[in-house]
Q: What sequence folds into this?
């Protein structure tokens, strides 16, 4: 459990300078431990600098590594003159990789005048902690001294944690309005019109109610998103989605995302408000490639217990992002009573000679949580080119299994493996201290050799199988799962994996509920009408994003674009069952009359509205709002799209006047809250 000895977040009540001040910043960029001006106290050799990014920042980062001792070790800051201050803020990224969950703590303490250390924040881990960004208020009696110091400390049995990584250490007085861009969360590899997403943190004094966020690829237009009606408290994280889509031809791009305004005013600290990420736009259709873990373990293996103490909680945290299968082995000693010969076949295939042993997507992964996290971070960015829609049903002791497999490329000579497992077993307790075992393999269908398959691009492969589980170790038939994985037998690479769904009928609806062109909905769209014409202004980009929203389920949607405009965009939909298909055609044409072009390019929606009105296609225009009597209520300039907020007005009809150069357009909007 976590134990806090001071206020974790009390920014709202702080009486500090509007302009802020940074006293200490340390990111270990000099790769020295201790950094210049810092010091170590106790077990100095255990501290170092690592080229890793476990704590969530950029390499390098500081780290502490375990030692077989009991005591206290500290990483101590330089002295800082805080004369006249009563409260300062302290932030850092960190992650604790727990080893034995007992008899130790990690924390932060302060002192002045080389006096006693006063604990401000302390954690007694019972599992891994983080990675996370901590923000702490220092407001104790040490603040205000001319020789203030803080330290990171570890106290107790120093052998019971594996590592403590830390980065981006900062002692500062916060600005009134300051948003720190934590990360861009869209994947490294994308296909066609993905959303630009990210996470930021309010590190200012004031609550954030409105944000202006921009993004750009060098040399291209700057995209702007205004987000309103939010309440991001000081120290809180906020996940955002930009309104404009990331849409570029296949290739590599550097994406930058940054915060420009908070609550209508400039972000007061530009030094922390941006992030960049290398993005690859893929040529062709891809899907999420589910990282697949295979663990060889046993209930008589003490190191297996130690590893699973961290690995099991990690898997639970990432349950929706991975697939997992465990093979119980027949050694050491008497071995696990749930050992099967099919598990032995997989052991021989990988050349496993000891447990625990772990494989990810067919490759060896070290049995430590940092190694697992590192593999996952890389594997989750890999594109997948196969979709699996699998299901199963249980009748007594018989399990019936079905799957539709859709490849987006040719995959000659893969092997499809299908494994029945039990989510949790307790009947195979051995001698290592474990009392529960997860994802235990019970039977492979048809066997451990799998099924050889030749997959052809966009052609469905259907699998059906049935097996009686009466002779297996199954404890509870309502606790079974099925996992599918496709492996290259020679290279051992696993190209896709997926859990099956029990008694699930995949949707066969291949219709769409909406199609957007340049993020603007096609007016009058009907799911059962498959041909549309959209007129675009002269001078639009050679490619404009077309995106679609499915009517039901999670279908596969692909887009075929013309080489130039005018031309047809073909939107192909393959239903969730991967078999039913549908196709929509969007003819993109151009119009050249200036007035007509402006009128047709402007989109105001929704109408009627409950308060917020989007104005698209009117860049650099002046937008004014009038009541029905002709009284002007507001006016503003549109820059890369805008949102008009009518929520403070009474219900009724309002006029929105849009003027660009000599062209004026007026539209009625109905407000109905």
A:
């Amino acid at each position: 459990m976590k134990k806090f000895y001071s206020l974790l977040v009390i920014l709202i009540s702080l009486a500090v300078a509007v302009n802020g001040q940074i006293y200490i910043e340390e990111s270990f960029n000099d790769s020295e431990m201790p950094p210049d001006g810092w010091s170590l106290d106790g077990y100095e050799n255990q501290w170092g600098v690592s080229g890793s990014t476990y704590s969530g920042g950029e390499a390098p980062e500081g780290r502490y590594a375990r030692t077989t001792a009991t005591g206290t070790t500290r990483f101590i800051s330089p002295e800082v003159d805080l004369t006249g201050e009563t409260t300062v803020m302290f932030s850092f990224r960190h992650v604790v990789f727990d080893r034995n969950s007992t008899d130790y703590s990690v924390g932060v303490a302060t002192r002045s005048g080389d006096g006693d250390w006063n604990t401000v924040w302390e954690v007694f881990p019972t599992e891994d902690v983080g990675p996370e960004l901590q923000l702490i208020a220092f407001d104790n009696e040490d603040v205000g001294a001319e020789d203030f110091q803080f330290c990171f400390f570890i106290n107790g049995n120093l052998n019971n944690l594996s590592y403590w990584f830390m980065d981006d250490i900062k002692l500062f007085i916060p600005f009134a309005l300051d948003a720190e861009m934590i990360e861009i969360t869209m994947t490294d590899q994308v296909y066609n019109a993905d959303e630009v997403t990210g996470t930021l943190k309010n590190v200012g004094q004031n609550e954030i109610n409105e944000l202006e966020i921009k993004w750009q690829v060098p040399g291209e237009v700057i995209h702007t998103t205004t987000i309103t009606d939010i309440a991001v408290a000081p120290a809180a994280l906020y996940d955002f989605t930009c309104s404009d889509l990331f849409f570029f031809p296949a290739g590599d791009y550097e994406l930058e995302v940054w915060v420009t305004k908070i609550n209508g005013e400039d972000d007061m600290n530009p030094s922390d408000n941006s992030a960049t990420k290398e993005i690859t736009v893929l040529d062709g259709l891809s899907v999420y490639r589910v990282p697949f873990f295979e663990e060889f373990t046993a209930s008589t293996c003490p190191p297996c217990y130690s590893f699973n103490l961290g690995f099991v909680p990690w898997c639970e945290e990432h349950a929706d992002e991975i697939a997992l299968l465990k093979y119980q082995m027949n050694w050491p000693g008497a071995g696990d009573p749930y050992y099967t010969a099919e598990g032995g076949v997989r052991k021989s295939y990988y050349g496993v000679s000891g447990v625990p042993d772990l494989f990810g997507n067919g490759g060896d992964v070290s049995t430590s949580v940092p190694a697992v996290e590192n593999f996952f971070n890389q594997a989750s960015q890999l594109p997948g080119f196969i979709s699996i829609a699998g299901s199963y049903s249980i009748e007594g002791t018989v399990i019936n299994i079905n799957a539709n497999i859709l490849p987006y490329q040719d995959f000659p000579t893969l092997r499809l493996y299908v494994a029945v497992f039990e989510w949790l077993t307790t009947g195979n307790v051995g001698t290592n201290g474990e009392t529960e075992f997860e994802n235990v393999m019970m039977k492979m269908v048809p066997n451990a050799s799998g099924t050889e398959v030749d997959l052809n691009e966009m052609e469905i492969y259907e699998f059906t199988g049935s097996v009686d589980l009466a002779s297996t170790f199954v404890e509870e038939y309502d606790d079974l799962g099925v996992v599918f994985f496709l492996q290259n037998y020679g290279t051992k690479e696993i190209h896709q994996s997926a859990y099956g769904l029990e008694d699930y009928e995949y949707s066969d609806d291949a219709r769409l509920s909406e199609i957007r062109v340049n993020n603007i909905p096609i007016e009058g769209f009907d799911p059962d009408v498959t041909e549309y014409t959209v007129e675009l202004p002269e001078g639009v980009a050679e490619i404009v994003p077309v995106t679609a929203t499915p009517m039901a389920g999670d279908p596969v949607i692909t887009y075929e674009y013309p080489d130039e405009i005018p031309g047809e965009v073909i939107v192909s939909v393959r239903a969730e069952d991967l078999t039913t298909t549908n196709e929509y055609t969007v003819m993109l044409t151009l119009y050249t009359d200036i007035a007509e072009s402006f009128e047709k390019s402007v989109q105001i929606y929704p109408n009627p509205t409950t308060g917020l009105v989007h104005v698209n296609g009117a860049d650099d225009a002046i937008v004014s709002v009038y009541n029905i009597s002709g009284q002007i209520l507001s006016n503003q300039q549109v820059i890369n799209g805008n949102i008009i907020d009518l929520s403070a007005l009474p219900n009724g009809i309002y006029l929105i006047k849009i003027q660009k150069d000599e062209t004026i357009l007026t539209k009625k909007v109905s407000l109905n809250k």
Summary: Confidence is low (pLDDT under 50) at residues 1-18. The chain has four helices and 50 strands. The domain at 512-591 is CATH 2.60.40 (Immunoglobulin-like).
